[in-house]
Amino acid sequence: MGLAPYGRPVFKDLILEKIIRLRDDGSFWMDMKYFDYCVGLTMTNRAFAKLFGGPPRKPESDVTQREMDLAASVQAVVEEAMSRLVRHTKELTNEENLCLAGGVALNCVANGKILREGTFKEIFVQPAAGDAGGALGAALVGWHHYLGRPRTVAPDGMDSQQGSLLGPSFTDEEIQTFAKRQNAVCHACADDDELYERTAALIAEGNVIG
What we know:
The chain is mainly alpha-helical. Helix content is about 45%, strand content about 5%. The protein contains seven helices and four strands. The chain has a two-stranded antiparallel ribbon with strand order 1-2. It has a two-stranded parallel sheet with strand order 3-4. The longest helix is centred in the middle third of the chain and has 29 residues, at about 65-95. The chain is extended.
């Protein structure tokens, strides 16, 4: 997804011809002879390399136009598959709102295209839509199905998760106190403008920002 904008989908037709058979309803069949992850330690194999005219890029080597075009081509096929699935889902349910989950649902470019198509009025992507969301799903099954707890929706009908946060929040004072206690280097920015300027400067110096 991130590399796709730098390439052209020149391999899209080849992918649709050789690798994936995409049906009108979005269901698909893939030719697994091009992939090795079921029996080996790599995602693709020599058949895949031969089909696309060269071996996989080695780690830390330069990204070539071929890799960019491959990314753009895969992205185009993914977008087409998702669009077909969404249209078929609308035909089956006639619902106004769509929930997406699964690793592919984290493809924000495809999600944006689906939103612009207007097939559904609202789209919600569960924040842990990848494999990690399986744990959340299992917890919800246990809570609602096995324990019989009621399902509740926020009064305004919006996201009752209130956003997905990584634990409790702390005030600036609490953070500074903890940092001093740990002898950690700490600087509190006076406002957002200073925060943005310092962050940009650190990135420009080659630092990693979290």
